[in-house]
Design goal:
Layout: E1 5-7, E2 13-14, E3 28-30, H1 31-61, H2 70-100, H3 105-129
Helix pairs in contact: 1-2, 2-3
The chain binds zinc ion (ZN).
């Protein structure tokens, strides 16, 4: 796979070792660096999915011991689901970056939305549980 650099703002691509974009002056990201970060995303995403999957399975297996209300349980599972979705998206973003050597703006945009949803869900769950 050929090494290239892509601008973080205007998507200008070049095989020249520019540190800054000749078109808009923004920082250039090399494909090697994007791929390295992609692997990091895959590892983190995979870890999140496996960990939260295990926790969800554990909680579901012990649900007879759960003393909270149905609403509390619902919010808890919702929170687990959002975290797992976040992990899956990290996996997808990482896989994309490793394959193409650049970032996927759509996935990043969805990721920001999911991050926002995660904060809202966490606050709501803590309120319901508290
Ligand atoms: Zn640029």
């Amino acid at each position: 796979m050929a090494e290239f650099s892509a601008c973080t703002k205007c998507n200008f691509e070049t095989t020249e070792p520019f540190a800054h974009c000749p078109k808009c002056g923004r920082r250039m990201l090399s494909s090697g660096r994007v791929r390295m970060l992609g692997w990091l995303l895959v590892v983190l995403g995979g870890f999140l999915v496996v960990m939260m999957g295990a926790i969800t399975a554990l909680v579901a297996a012990n649900s007879s011991h759960f003393t909270g209300t149905a609403i509390q349980a619902m919010f808890m599972y919702l929170l687990f689901a959002v975290i797992i979705a976040f992990g899956l998206l990290s996996l997808a973003a990482g896989a994309w970056q490793i394959k193409y050597g650049k970032r996927n703006k759509t996935i990043m945009f969805v990721g920001m939305g999911l991050g926002f949803l995660l904060v809202i869900t966490t606050i709501a769950t803590l309120r319901v549980l508290g």
